[in-house]
Structures are given as C-alpha cells and as structure tokens.
Amino acid sequence: MAPNHLISEKSPYLIQHAQNPVDWYPWCEEAFEKADTDNKPIFLSVGYAACHWCHVMEKESFEDEEAAGYLNDTFICIKVDREERPDIDSVYMAACQMLTGRGGWPLTVLLTPDKKPFFAATYIPKNSRFGRPGLIDICKQIKSLWEKDRDKISDSAAQISSHLGKAFDFQWTGEIIDESILKTAYEELESSFDEEHGGFGSAPKFPTPHRMLFLLRYYHRTGEEKAMIMVRKTLKTMRLGGIWDHVGFGFHRYSTDKVWLLPHFEKMLYDQALLAIAYLEAYQITQDSFYAKTADDIFTYVLRDMTSDTGGFFTAEDADSEGEEGKFYVWSTHEFNAILGAERGKLWQRFMNLNSQGNFSDEATGKKTRSNILHLTRSFSEWAEKLEMEETDLADRWEKTRETLFHIRKKRTPPLKDDKILTDWNGLMIAALAMGSRILGNYSYIEAAKRSAAFIQRRLTDETGALLHRFRDEESGIQANANDYAFYILGLIELFRATFEPEYIQRAIDLQEQMLGNFWDHENSGFYLTSKTAEQLPARPKELYDGAIPSANSIAFSNLLLLSRLTGNTRWEKYAEEMVSAFAGSINQQLSAFSYFLCGLEFVVGKKHEVVIAGETTSPDTEKMLSVLDNKYAPNMVVFLKNSQNEKQLIEIAPFTAPIKPVADKTTAYVCTDFACGSPTTDPKELASMIEKTKD
C-alpha cells in the first residue's frame, strides 16, 4: 500500500498514520484547496503520540479498509499533532466543548472547506453501538446532507464560527481581585480534597502540580496547616501509587481511579518538569528527604530516557507497547519469582502489592488481568518501622532489586518515544533542572539545563531572534506560540537564578519584548496563543485556564512580576496589573481552575525580597551565603550575585545594583523587603535571620 500525504512529516504521531488506508493530509493549504475543488467537507482528527484512545481509534477505524473507504469517499481527511499545533487544537477543542459540553483526544471535527466547524466529537467507534453513532454511519449521514442539504451545514457552520470567538473572550468586568480571593481559592481546593487518598475530586485523578505550588505559597504566607497537609498527602500518595514508575522512575499521565493505582501509562515531559518543581518546593519547606529523592528520581528518568544527544528533551513516551496499554510496565508474580527467586520474590511481592490474580481489573471488562502494577501502601520509612529495621538498609535492598527488574524490563518491547523537541516543554524542564541544581546541589542538573537552552538558541531560534516551536530529525519549524515564549522565559529566569550569568536574564528580557509585540491583546489585555503574524483560524485563541499545564497567560503573569523585580523596571508590572483587571471576571467564577495565576497573585500580596550578594563565585563565603538562600523556601524572593565577571552586564540589566559592593573585601549580602533595605551583612547566620524575620 502506498503511503499517504503524511509520509514526509516530522511528527512521530503523523508518521504513525502515514501507512493508513485513510488518505490523510497534514494541515496545509493543499488539503483545503482539494476540499474546495472536490466539493467535500473536511474530516479533522487531532491527537498525539502518547494518547491511548487515539491508538484505539486508529486500529479500529483508520487502519480498517472499510472505514477508510467511507472516510475517503466522504471527506478530505486531515491529521494534526496537537503538540505541534496547539493553536489548531485550542480552536477546535473549544468548538467541541461548545457543541458537546466536553472534550478530549482524539478530537474529531468536521469542517467546511473554509475551516468552519459544524460537528465535533472525541473518540468515535467504527460502528454505532449503545446509542453512540459510529464512524461509518456518520460518513453516510454527512455525505447525504452535503449533497442534498448543503445550506443546513453551511448555516450551522457559520453560526458555530460566529460564537467560537466567545470561547476566548475575556472582557473587562470591573471586578476586583484582592487577597480575599486567595482564601476563597484555598477553600475551594479544601472542599474537593480527598482526605483518604490525596488529590482532588474522584476518578480520574490528575497530578495538577500547580495546585500544589499555590497551596505551598498559601501555607507559607498564612500558616494554614491544612494547606500543607493537602500538599504532603497528595505528593506522598502519588509517589507511592501506580502512577509512579517504581522500576524506571517518572510519573505516568494520570490515574483512572481515585487511589492512584491504575494510570494511563503515557509519560509526558511537562508532567516530569512541573512535578519535579512541586517536590523540590515541598522539600525546601519541609526538609523531608522523601521529596528530594522523588525530584532526583524524576531527573534520573529524564536525563536517562528523555534527553537527546543535542541537549534537547524529548516530548513523551507512549502508553502502549505491542498493541497493549501498560504492557511494558506490569508484572506477574511468576515473573517476580523467576527473576528474584522464590523467597526474595515473595518479600517484594508483599511490599509492592502483587498477587497471582493481578492487582487491577481491565478497564473495559472489569476482569482481573493476572498482571500487577507495582505500588506501595506504606512508605519505606513506615515499612522499616513495622519491621524494626533501618530505613536505609531497606531502601538499599529495594534499590538492588529495582535495578535487577529494570535491566530485565529493558529487554521488553518499549513504548514509542515521541522524540520531537518542543520549545515550551523544554522551557519547563530547564526551569525544573535549574531549581534542582541549586536546591539539591547537583551540578549535573544545571549543565543539562544549560545544554537545552543552548540547543534552543542554536536550533529553535530563527535569524531574527524569534523562537520556533518544534525540532525533529534535523529540521526546525512551526512558528512559536505564546506557550513557547512564556515557558522558555520562565526557564531562563530560573537559569539566571542558578548561575547568575546575565545573558540568561537578558535573553528573557528580549523574548518578553517579542512576546508583548507579537502576542499582546492591545484592546482587552493578556496574551493570545498565536502571534499576530500566524495563520488565521476561525478564532484567535487566548487561554487562561490552567489545565494539565498552566496557561501561557498564567506563567507570563508571574514572569512579568519577576522581571520587574529583577530589572527594577516597573513597566513589566504594569502589564501584569492589566492582566489582573482583564481576567478578574473569569477567575472569580472558578478560582481553583487558575491556580498558577493565583501563584502570581500570592507574589503580589506577599512580602517581596530582593537579595544581592556581592562577592566572587569561587569564594567559600559566597557559597555559604547562597546556600542559606537556596535552603529557604522563599517564592517571593529574587536573588542576584554580583561579581567581577558579571558586574558590567548586571548593572546594565539591573541598574540599582551599581552601588552595591563587598564590605571590607568580604562577601556581603544586601536585603531589601517591600521597598525598604536593611543594613548589609557579611555573616551567613545573620542573613538567614534577616530572611526569617521578613518571612511572609
């Protein structure tokens, strides 16, 4: 069978479909011109490589000759990788939610040749069943309507498109956001908190690490113990549960049940980055090594399995292998005994909750699978106490066992790796690794972060200095979106915090200027997802809701506040203030859905600290000063190191640092809190005391 039009694409997801009998096109003008010439509607299918139900629909319908025949006869078929084109996904997902009240992937949308939607759904079975229309029946109905009652479709498409822009309409309402809404947001989260299993709501459960970041800030400012309890419970139960890969490390996408046992097994780069940040901040505030170890293990997974030779980080790993979801990750008791021996196998079966019938049921049939997902119901510290042994001894024994299992598992057929490199998700991982390097003291993490940043500068930046979105197979392409700018700027800010190399903050400033010039909504404020020079779609998306990842607006809001403090330029803060006014009405409707934006508001209402250390990088006294700051949880603190190497550049970026210098040739710390500066100190203990006294 000859391949279809996807054969020359770079996306692994699109290439997966290149041999389908469906005559797929990528999103391109050729496809729409053909639809117009052949007088056919468009069948738009949006998904991503690690999506389980995308694979189900492909196997059931797109690989099926009969279903493909109906699709080819009725439509011009277009396949889109949502990770490559989040703008297309955003617009047509909004249409799906408008028409059906829900969304998800695979996303299926029927369009007129002028890109206007008139029907939307998610997964569609090949044949109708249980009242759910099947793909073949839909093809028959649309073909008949298109030929006999085109006006009905055209009128519907025009009406839907006229309302589509409202999905991204954040009008000024005059509402006010102040400190009181942070308490209300906390109360919303508390009301949905699962006291027994951690997390929020019931099944399915998503990690939503940005909720943890908000709760940590809220606890830090208010001392509300329940906020900390929610964070600790959730981070602990996720790490013990089946959503965590106990053999190879890293978090799966989400849990299908409320107890964190049965995940959808795909692993996404953004989850690793955001969860690492949450565990790092939890470690800072608690000094509990459990959180530090989890962050370390996440980084081990990313640097081992998700890092390219060029320094960029890959996008995802699939849920399926050999046509079966999770097959790579699960174990039978027979395997355990064969690998570890009967006695050792029995011990770890008990710890990791394996049994001969399997510890989970098939999601569709409800039958026991005879396979097991490794998970803990007690932490190693709790097991050690129960068994009256040292926790380190128990952990060492498990590590040897884990390594044995890991090497055996490597012989299995692995899930597909989506090895494209995305600027936005790399920005998040750069931020996480930069934080990890200074909080955990691991220099290899900052080296990995710097390599990724260098890769983006080298291969994902065009000749004008503008960002590109995707790199794969030696090809860079796709115009960057607001996520690329916001997430990468965050990474650069964290790189500066970890290295104090001014070029990182200068690059962040340059990109923030580009973002304002190309994405800012001059009428209603906030950032559009697409550049002003991007392809025109039925609506220009503007996202605020913090879903699986925070929105570009939420992260940009915090970036603007930080850049204002780092440069002393209040212009950045004025843009942030406009965003609060513009989005107040939407945020007030469901506060907990905007948790990363609320992290920025915590920065606004809390005490803010600027600390400048004047001293040489190699000085032991400088290291002691910085160690004091790195060990403190202080999310509203910006830090500078001024030394002989960066002094000139730093003064250009942050002119207020010009008069700052060491006292008596000793490393000296200058601390300012809420626009008031204290006396300089050369004593690390006094610095620690000053930070503690100015705690929110």
Strand order of the largest sheet: 1-3-2-4-5
Count structural domains. 4
Structural class: alpha+beta
Total strand count, please? 18
Low-confidence stretches: none
Number of helices: 26
CATH fold title of the largest domain: Glycosyltransferase
| Gyration radius, in Å | 26 Å
CA(first)-CA(last) distance = 66 Å
CATH architecture of the largest domain, by name, is Alpha/alpha barrel
The fraction of residues assigned to DSSP E strands is: 5-15%
Shape: globular
Largest sheet: 5 strands, mixed
Q: For the record, what CATH class of the largest domain applies?
A: Mainly Alpha
The pLDDT mean sits at 94
Percentage of residues in helical conformation: 40-55%
What does this structure look like?
The chain has 696 residues and is an alpha+beta fold. It folds into four domains: 12-168, Glutaredoxin; 179-328 and 417-605, Alpha/alpha barrel (Glycosyltransferase); 333-409, no CATH class; 609-693, 3-Layer(aba) Sandwich (Glutaredoxin), CATH 3.40.30. Helices cover 50% and strands 11% of the residues. The strands form five sheets. Strands 1-3-2-4-5 form a five-stranded mixed β-sheet, sandwiched between helices. It has a five-stranded antiparallel β-sheet with strand order 8-9-12-13-14. The protein has a four-stranded mixed β-sheet with strand order 16-15-17-18, with helices on both faces. The radius of gyration is 26 Å and the shape is globular. It starts with 11 loop residues before the first helix and ends with a helix.
